[in-house]
Amino acid sequence: MTSPALQATALVKTYRLGREQVAALRGVSLEVARGSFVAVMGPSGSGKSTLLHLLGLLDTPDSGDITLAGEAVGALGDDDRTRLRRDRLGFVFQGFELLPTLSARDNILLPAEVAGRGAEAARRLPDLAARLGIEGRLEHRPAELSGGQQQRVAVARALINNPVVLLADEPTGNLDSRTGREVLELLQQGVRDQGWTIVMVTHDPHAALYAERIIFLRDGTVSGEINTDRHEARTMIEALVAG
Amino acid sequence: MLILWRLSFRALYRHPWRTLATSLGIALGMAAVLATLSVGANVEANLRQSLEAGVGGADLLVVPGTDGRAVFAVDEVLPQVRAVPGVGAVRAVLEIAAEPERRGDAPQGTQIPGFDTGFRLFGRPLPADQPSADYASNSTSDDLTANTAATEVDTALTLVRGALPTAGSQGIAVGAGFAEARSVAIGDEIRFASRFGDLSFAVTGILDDANGIASSNGGRVGIASLADVRTALRLPGRASYLEVEVTDDLRDVEARLADALGERYLVTLPANRGNVPTGISDTLAAGLRVLAATLVALGAFVAYNTFSADAVTRTREFALLRTLAFTRAQLRRLALYEALLIGVLGVLLGIGLGAGLAFGINYANALLLGYEVRTLVLPLPQLLVAAVVAVVSALVAAWIPAQRAARTSPLAARRQAMTAPPPRRPGAGVLLLVCGAAVALLPWSGTWSLFSSALAMGSLFFGTTLLAPTLLGPTFGLLRPLLVRLYRLPATLGSGFTERNSARNGVAVGAVTVGVSIVIGVGAMVAGINKSISDWVETTIVGDLFMSSPGNLPAGFTAQVSERVPEVEAVSGVAIRVVRLEPSPTLPLERARSISLILVEPERFHPERGFGAFQFIVGDAADGYDALADPDQVLVANTLAQRLGVTVGDTLALRTRAGTASFMVGGVIVDFTGGGEAVVMGLGGLERFGGGDPDLFVLTVRPGHDATEVAGALRDAFPDLPLDVTVGQAYRDEILAISRRSFIATNSLLVLAAIIAALGVANTLGMNLSERQHELALLRTLGLTRRGLQRLVLAEGTVVLTLGTLFGVVVGGVLATVITAGASSITGFPIAPSYPWGIGVAALLCAPLVGLLAALAPARQAGRLEPITALRRPAG
């Protein structure tokens, strides 16, 4: 049996804000199967971002375990976590986060070059760029690209190392609705045709509906979960969002 | 890894001004090191070329040896020289100091024995008839010729006007510079006074002083026929030295000649003939080294400042790289690669700046040492050392910021509050300041004082940087009434900005502190040196009148002075010679060195009866008198004593006319003659060092008489003697001016320190602004006018500059002690810091104004900010 792409068990994370302790996550568990598209929704302060940070190995939980492609990451040191992040995870951010000094091509190839696989990635790049519709924009700097194009470049960068999971943090938050839709369709198509695995944090119900499964967080716990292929999904989302 | 290099390069390329400013900091440090390290090489190269120019095409010189004679009979040695295989043409030269009689309209100046070489008259073998301007001699001369049919060209004596004198014509060709200064024309008769008698020559030609002999000694040279000079001086068959051309391997011929001639003659390369005490250039180089080290530290601090601020500014970028792919080690490497590129750029800029600075120092040294600037040398080893220092200082400066960058959490990119100040550490700052002050104020000696200088500087500067953020608020509070009056509401907003960006502003305060404290610290050192020289002049150069004469003085001259001018109370002679200090079993020097020997009459320094005094480092006035009265004792200048590691009771081996003799050190005194490389002994010892008359007479005037009037009476009393009489204070002022010239280069480096510091401040303020564009744009969006934004930036700049200056004045005062101790230990001069408090007060008063000026460009830049454009950019 194939191991899930990502598995989190009883994640707990507490922050100190001034003199107060704030429990961001209070024992969150979830499993993301390979080739699936999962959205995480919840109101502000529900713990979405904290969960994404823990799943992305950007932060460590106070307790609980995370397994990435069958490998437990809890005991790994910083360098090993970095390597794992580089080789098995891809990130797409709301603000695109491209390096302004590099061209689109260099931005995309950056994680591969750091990993020492630049040549191999460069061979794959034309195909990937064509699939994302940015083949004509590779030599441009981020400032010369539209928001949608920048986000496609960010997606290409996230995918260049063939990650196990692509983590997206409000990927359409800075885009207009049409461009946002295009990006989401792109992600959906990638999951369907290429077998990508995506975990997307969003507060936008329309965006969440592009995922196969939506996990709802409230006050640091999982408050609900639905499959979007159910006929009444939209109504359920609205109910859950409304609280 | 190529990608790291690429990212580094692009990061630098993206911020060209920041890159240039940081590189410039490193480059200025390197330039200072390069210029300082090449001081010795430049002095040597220029002196060598001057000396070589003075002997034309000669390969070797034969000069009188250990017996100290000024001239010798040519016949006595010529056959032996000619018999040596490999010897080509040989020319006898008679070279003497001969002072031309001054005319009424010619500029008059005091000639200081021991400092000024005066006019040099060369009697050279010239052809009997030589009409052409370009002259090559060697086939004809009066009493000696080549032993081969030599065809080599002698000194190219290029004339700009007239012709070379011919033998028997009593003619002379003089340097163009001299001719111009004295308004001398062809056909004029010039009378010279010399130790060998009076001379008179008619000018036949003006020599081009761009090359050859005329290019030496500032053009103050004259060429006459050897035969005529010999006749005029009544020195038949005599020469000062023989110029030898060789036809074989130079070193072999030199060795063969030395073997053949023995102790009575010395065979030397033309470049080794110089009599400038090596100590002067050593002193210069040593003094400059202290400042160069300080400038390197300052340049590195500017670079650290930039790298630090950069690490804060680029937190988001670093965090993103950590998120995407980079390990901590890779991020650290990225930061260090940038530093390396900055270092390389700094080296490239530094070579250019260093060459310019070296030229300036070379020029200053040429003024001091009396040589012409002929070449600029940047020796490869020194260049490499300076380059390594530059690159290493860039890497050292980047190390802490690189560590900070490496510790960037990947999450930092996701946080909104990117510019949240790091935790303040005022306690650590205070601790560092206390430690730095303690290190600076402790009485270190020797090389420890240098080490402690560096340690104190480092501690004080980093302490300032750590403590400053905590004090920004209170400083703003103190300045608030002034700032609100000047800038109104934006001043209040500026307060928040100043505090919120306190860490970065702390570094800016550090940069200002460094600049101000270096100016005050090194200024105190220079002022201390000047005070030491003044004290020496006021204590030792005591007398109402100082009298010298380029001519021969009659026997019993001293007694005649008292007889003919009764207003003169006492007359005391002083002779100044350059002697060779030889290695000895008790003082194993690497090689012999030239030092100044000052011979004085002991009675002048009698504790009760005398009117002169020394400043004693070891010993007292009674010991000094005893030492001067003892023909085998000397008093040693403190600088020389420290460099040689000798003290009272040790012995020095000096070359006398009877061979090398030992002299016991009877006391250690302060003396700046010859750059501090001097020994003093009784005038009775003059015969052992070549004899002759004193070069200078120090006179006191009976009470109630005016020194200026007595000077006139002296000239009237000896109408036939070319007496140069100077009133005491004018003479002392002249010596003071000459001595202080040694520090022209030091002062120029001080200006460089101020430039580096200013660069650091401008750099930091610029970076502050570029990082805060988002916030500033937000304020514009919320309604702050362009003018308001400018005022806000100006308010912040004023606070930073004021706090930095306050720190700088205090830290500079503390640093002055240790910098001066370091300089004193290197140069050997007894220096106590003399605080230029005037500069400190001026700095404090000017700080708000300077702050205003420094912040003006960034403020204008802020004023031009378009809210929409800036708001599109992510915060931080």
What is the secondary structure topology, with strand pairs?
The complex is a heterodimer of chains A (243) and B (876).
Chain A: E1 6-17, E2 20-32, E3 37-41, H1 48-55, E4 63-68, E5 71-72, H2 78-88, E6 89-92, H3 104-114, H4 118-132, H5 147-159, E7 165-169, H6 177-194, E8 198-201, H7 205-208, E9 213-218, E10 221-227, H8 233-242
Parallel strand pairs in A: 3-8, 3-9, 6-7, 7-8
Antiparallel strand pairs in A: 1-2, 1-4, 4-5, 9-10
Chain B: H1 2-14, H2 16-37, H3 39-54, E1 60-64, E2 72-73, H4 74-83, E3 87-100, E4 120-124, E5 159-162, E6 171-175, H5 176-181, E7 189-194, E8 197-207, E9 221-225, H6 226-233, E10 238-239, E11 241-246, H7 250-261, E12 265-268, H8 278-313, H9 315-324, H10 328-369, H11 380-406, H12 426-441, H13 447-487, H14 489-500, H15 502-540, E13 545-548, H16 557-564, E14 568-582, E15 593-600, E16 616-618, H17 621-629, E17 633-637, H18 638-644, E18 651-656, E19 659-669, E20 678-682, E21 696-701, H19 707-717, E22 724-727, H20 728-740, H21 744-771, H22 773-781, H23 786-827, H24 837-863, H25 867-872
Parallel strand pairs in B: 4-9, 6-8, 15-20, 17-19
Antiparallel strand pairs in B: 1-11, 1-12, 2-10, 3-4, 3-7, 3-11, 5-8, 6-9, 7-8, 13-21, 13-22, 14-15, 14-18, 14-21, 16-19, 17-20, 18-19
Helix pairs in contact in B: 1-10, 2-8, 2-10, 2-11, 2-21, 3-10, 8-10, 8-11, 8-15, 8-21, 8-23, 10-11, 12-13, 12-23, 13-14, 13-15, 13-23, 14-23, 15-20, 15-21, 15-23, 21-24, 23-24
Any key phrases for this structure?
heterodimer; A: four-stranded antiparallel β-sheet; B: 876 residues; alpha+beta; six-stranded mixed beta barrel; 25 helices; disordered C terminus
Short overview:
The complex is a heterodimer of chains A (243) and B (876). By secondary structure, chain A is an alpha/beta fold.
